[in-house]
């Protein structure tokens, strides 16, 4: 069964002066609830923590898609990366996300064994906030100096 992701409204709030963007306006409620359930199944999270992790995973991915090809060295924290994994492992929904928000191009996830200690996680969190997303900063601080992902034009 295909899951249709809602397009972002043309009138978004100014990330500096307006309210932050919320991924729940872009992800169907049923899909979000399913993925929260997956997180609760696989991690010791209650529904509140699972929703926080998932929301930041979506904010990160949508930011990475918006800045694809800019070679910014984006990296999620370890907790946000758990949300990212939950999203990308739901492959049908993830393919639709890429179709809708990345011009149909698949945004690959290329994890590295070594953590890069270059401050990329907090720079990424700042970019997520600058793009207007609701930032849950405590979820980004678990890997404040390093990130687990390789970056490039076609990956995050």
Shape: globular
Strand residue percentage: 5-15%
Report strand order across the widest sheet: 1-2
Kindly give the count of domains. 1
C-alpha Rg (nearest Å): 14 Å
Structural class: mainly alpha
Helicity range: 40-55%
Distance between the termini: 27 Å
Mean pLDDT: 83
Q: Name the helix and strand elements from N-terminus to C-terminus, one letter apiece.
A: HHHHEHE
Task: Give a written overview of the molecule.
The protein has one domain. Helix content is 44%, strand content 7%. The chain has 5 helices and 2 strands; from the N terminus they run H-H-H-H-E-H-E. It has helices spanning 29-42, 47-66, 78-89, 91-101, 120-130; strands spanning 111-117, 146-149. Strands 1-2 form a two-stranded antiparallel ribbon. The two termini are 27 Å apart.
How are the SSEs placed, and which strands pair?
Elements: H1 29-42, H2 47-66, H3 78-89, H4 91-101, E1 111-117, H5 120-130, E2 146-149
Antiparallel strand pairs: 1-2
């Amino acid at each position: 069964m295909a899951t249709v992701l809602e397009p972002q409204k043309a009138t978004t709030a100014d990330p500096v002066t307006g309210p932050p963007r919320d991924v729940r306006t872009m992800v169907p409620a049923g899909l979000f609830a399913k993925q929260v359930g997956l997180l609760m199944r696989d991690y010791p999270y209650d529904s509140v923590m699972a929703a926080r992790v998932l929301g930041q995973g979506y904010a990160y991915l949508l930011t990475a898609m918006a800045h694809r090809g800019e070679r910014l060295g984006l990296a999620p924290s370890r907790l946000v990366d758990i949300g990212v994994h939950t999203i990308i492992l739901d492959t049908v929904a993830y393919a639709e996300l890429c179709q809708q928000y990345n011009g149909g191009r698949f945004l690959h996830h290329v994890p590295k064994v070594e953590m890069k200690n270059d401050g990329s996680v907090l720079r990424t969190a700042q970019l997520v906030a600058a793009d207007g997303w609701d930032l849950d900063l405590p979820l980004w601080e678990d890997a404040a100096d390093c990130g687990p992902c390789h970056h490039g034009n076609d990956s995050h």
